[in-house]
Amino acid sequence: MIALHRISDSVRARSLVAAPCRRFLLGLLVLLPLFVAGPGCGPVDINQEPSSAAGCEPPQAGDLEPQPIMLPGRRCAACHEKGHQAGRRVWTAAGTVYDRPDSPCNSGVVAGAKVEIADETRKVLVTLYTNSRGNFYTSEPLRYTGIIVRVSKDGKTREMQGAMGSTDCAACHYPGGSAGGRVYLN
């Protein structure tokens, strides 16, 4: 009887330890797809979204890796939209700030600029800051019928002259685009 009692205690002890381990491993299996399909899931294929070019020259090395500093000047929303290549990360507003309206995509970016997105009454809906490649973006829900964007840094400020219906900045802001050039601050 004693030997059987020790065996059952041992089995019970292992099952007490095994249950939390099984739950932990099952939890890891559930989370694994998030890590596999998340950032760093492989290079972007810009040929899938030809409208993303926005008058840009070919991307630099490393610009096709999914990261916040990728592809400055391109139309972020061409990919960051439901049903598109980066549809898991939908941006409600995105763009790049440059030091002049005719800057090429890969140079002349302004890092650390404050970008305020306001509604047509100039009530600020969200405040963003550009990263080291001049990019800004948000997935914050924005409610508006028209938006006005204000960009500022080091005492310089530029503001859109009128309210627009889109927060896909590079759709209009590129050399030859309907806005006449890039979003810029000089």
Describe this structure in words.
A hairpin with a 4-residue loop joins β2 and β3 (124-129). The chain has two domains: 1-36; 66-186, Immunoglobulin-like (Sandwich), CATH 2.60.40. It is built from one helix and seven strands; from the N terminus they run αβββββββ. It has 186 residues and is of the alpha+beta class. A four-stranded antiparallel β-sheet has the order 3-2-5-6, with no helix packed on it. Helix content is 19%, strand content 19%. It has one helix spanning 2-36, and strands spanning 93-98, 114-119, 124-129, 135-138, 147-153, 156-159, 183-184.
Question: How is this fold's topology laid out?
Answer:
Layout: H1 2-36, E1 93-98, E2 114-119, E3 124-129, E4 135-138, E5 147-153, E6 156-159, E7 183-184
Parallel strand pairs: 1-7
Antiparallel strand pairs: 1-4, 2-3, 2-5, 5-6
Overall mean pLDDT = 82
The main sheet orders its strands as 3-2-5-6
What fold name goes in the CATH topology slot of the largest domain?
Immunoglobulin-like
Tell me the domain tally: 2
- β-strand percent reads 15-25%
Please describe the structure with a list of short key phrases separated by commas or semicolons.
three-stranded mixed β-sheet; 2 domains; 7 strands; alpha+beta; Immunoglobulin-like; disordered N terminus; four-stranded antiparallel β-sheet; 186 residues
